Amino acid sequence: MAPDRPVPRLRWLLPALLALAWLALGAFAGPFAGKLSEVASNDGSAFLPSTAESTEVNDLRAAFDDTGATPAIVVAERPGGLTGADQAYLESAAAALAALEFNAGPPIPPQFSAETPPEAAELVVLIDTASEDGAVEEIRTVLEDGRPDGLDVLVTGQAALGADLGEAFAGVDGLLLLVAAAVVAVILVLVYRSPLLPLLVLLSCGFALAAASAAVYALADAGAIDLNGQSQGILFILVFGAATDYALLLVARFREELTAGSDRFTAVRRALRATIEPIAASAGTVILGVLCLLFSQLESNRGLGPVAAIGIGAAFLSAVTFLPAVLALCGRAAFWPRRVAPGKGAGRSRLWSSVAGLVARRPRVVWATTAAGLVVAAGFMLQLKADGTRQTDVFLTEVDSVAGQEVLAEHFPAGSGAPAVVVANADALDAVLAATEVDGVAEAAPKTDPSGAVLEADGLVLIEAVLMDAPDSDAAMDTVERLRDSVHAVDGADAKVGGATAIQLDTLETSERDRAVIIPIVLAVILAVLMLLLRSILAPLLLTATVVLSFGATMGVSALVFNHLFGFPGADPTVVLFGFVFLVALGIDYNIFLMTRVREESARLGTRAGTLRGLVATGGVITSAGVVLAATFSALAVLPILFLAQIAFVVAFGVLLDTVIVRSLLVPALTFDVGRAVWWPSRLARSKALTPLRPPE
Known about the structure:
697 residues, alpha+beta, 4-stranded antiparallel sheet
């Protein structure tokens, strides 16, 4: 290995100070990655806008309760009929549960199913929302004491669903981080075949995550942003993926400079100067793309915007400060045991030279064929079922709350534990009660005090309508729509319908609105960034069109996979929205990496030769970056949540499609075929090649 030349001692000072500063920051901020769950909330009702009808009802119903309460439903079942011992156990369990500190009121006594003899019983426990943490687990522990053999006892309802969801997200802090780091480490070792360089890149990722976590924790703790489990998981993945991508680009250029004969400090300076524009443009594009989520009316979506932007910003800062510093300190030793000597390894990749040769020989055939294939795949997007799923379908593993809901639906009106709530003017009570008699409502009654008198608060009454169907089902949402139409029609009642089903319905409608509004904004923002970066109009239009086509093809393939391979029950509208934001913002990154190098080479060689040289020079590093990002997003699938598994597949497949097909074939072939006109209206569109076009080296 050729040693780096001796250098003045002061040239070590700035890199050493930068490295020490990041070490200090990592030591301070590192613990915050494990503390984010403390400031995260997975309560769906808190994410709706204040103008949503269910939110208004939530605010109004507080006047009818001495304290906020979330129902947990205990359901017991014995096929063939409950025994006397079962009934005695249920009475004892009700008394034990009534003694627990988190009760918002006395448990509703056991209610038995209509079979003779009854085969099931339900018991409703009202949990004080201020003491909700750990309450469901405590209920389940109490119910195990003295449970007769053969009696199935499960806890379901909103409280249990929330507890099981929180348990599913518990792996964000540990398992997800471990899997993401392991995946990145394995890929980096395969790419670099060096033990030290992957460690330096992982340190860069870790410091970026620490800085981002500390910032997000402070903002969420202060109430400035909303954080939930899915945003937390996406933050971890984005930071690891983006920081690694930026590192791959910088390290590849650093190695180029070393093989050209530069010393370590000059090589770092030149590499950073050459890559800072595409890395900054990439980070800026993703940041602006995710910040478009601020236009969402759902707080969960709006909260992800700044969370993801902070993560990308931290990844950028780490990649352009800490990583150059340690590369300058390590020099050629970073690549050990591989030798990086002047002139060694400067040759072109045979694979990417072959790809460039194909593009040069048949550009129109290449781009027309790849575009046609993407169009065919995009046609299957019409099969994507992205109109929402049941709340119980969000789990990919068996949980008690879902099993309990199924038992409850078999023996009782499925909505008994989570009734629809109607708030109306008191003088219209009788008319509103009559209006609640719609298909799908089992029974409706006003809330009363212990004496049986109808409760009134500020001239309003509250009516609870028990639904026949499970509260998270499509049938229940249809019932709520009919119920709203019916009670809204009562003159002078000012009736509003809320409750768990109404929250889900309003969330679905808001998600569909967000999708229609935000997607065009993201496209406009990214198009503007590309025009500024490439100083062109035509090239950004072509690049944006290719990324949109890639997104359509990805969603088409996803529809086939979700429907026929995985058998998913459907998808939330936010899967399409998040998929679009991430795929367009991240997919355009690789086009930025490619086209900034193509523009650089085109200024010397002309557009066609510059396209081929740019493709060969960036092919390996961009493909590696795409594989890393796809692999890190795939790590989201370790969390047993339907939404995250779908996002993991959509982004991972879409990034690979964009990297392997769009950036490697479609974009270079289009650019080559269009020629220098692709840079219109910049001066580069009028310049001629300075060297004759020849096959890539």
